[in-house]
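Summary for the steering committee. One of the milestones for this cycle was to obtain a three-dimensional model of the protein with S-adenosylmethionine bound, which we needed before selecting residues for the alanine scan. The sequence and ligand used are listed below.
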Amino acid sequence: MDRVVLPEILDELPPADPRAIGSRRDLRRINGVMGNAGVLAAALRAAGTGPTAPARCAELGAGDGALALALARRLAPAWPGVAVTLVDRRPAVTAGTLAGFTQLGWTATVVAADVFAWLDRAAAETDVIVANLFLHHFPEADLRRLLARAAARTRLFAACEPRRSPFALAASGLVGLLGANAVTRHDAVVSVRAGFTGAELSARWPAAGWTLREGGARAFSHVFTAARAPRPGAGG
Ligand SMILES: C[S@@+](CC[C@H](N)C(=O)[O-])C[C@H]1O[C@@H](n2cnc3c(N)ncnc32)[C@H](O)[C@@H]1O
C-alpha cells in the first residue's frame, strides 16, 4: 500500500463544533482500543532518558490532552514534577484534564499554535517530545521538515501512528461499530492510508548520533523512537 495523505475533517473544525466534540470523544475510545498510551509509555521506557528523569515534555498535536494525561499517569511514578506542553492548532483541553495533570504533580500548559511555528520558538527546547496520531497528517516534505525541527529541540522523540496495513485499513472502516461519528469514520480511513510501516520514519529522521527503534505495536499501531546518544564525556 502506497502512502496517501489527504485532508482530515477534524483538522478544519472549530473545537466547539459538535462534530469536533464528538470526534474527539471517538478518538479517546480509539486510542483506548489501539492501546496507544501504553504503547508510547513502553517505547519511552525502552528508549530511556539517560541518567536524569525529564523535566520538560511536549506533545505535538495534543488535541484534548486526554492521551497525554493517560501517558502521564503511566510515567509520573518514575518522572515526577514534569512540565508538559500540549501543542495543537485547535486545542480542546478541558479544566478537568488540566486538573488531572495537577493531581499527578505535573504542570500542563496549553499552546494554540501550528506545530512548525511552535518548534521554531526557543520554548520548544524540551527533554522529550511525543506525538500520537499526528505525524501521518504530513506529506513527505513537511514530515521531513517536522522531524528535523523536532530533532533540533529534544533528546528523546516518540511517535505512535496508525499502521498502514490491509488489516488496519479494514478495521478503520469499522469504527462506526464503536459509535464513531461521520467525521471520525472519514478520518480513520484517511489516517490509515497516510500511516506508516517498516522503517519509514527512521529513514526520514535527519541526524546521525541517534538510536532509532521502529515497528508495529499491538494490532493497529506503528511506533517510532529516536534517542540522542549521550555525548562522549557527558556526566551520568
Ligand atoms: C488525530 S488528532 C490526535 C489528537 C491527540 N494526539 C490524540 O491522540 O487524541 C490530530 C491533532 O493534530 C492537530 N493538528 C493537525 N495539524 C496540525 C498542525 N499543523 N499544527 C498543530 N496541530 C495540528 C489537530 O488539531 C488534531 O487535534
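Key point for the committee: DSSP finds nine helices and seven strands in the chain.
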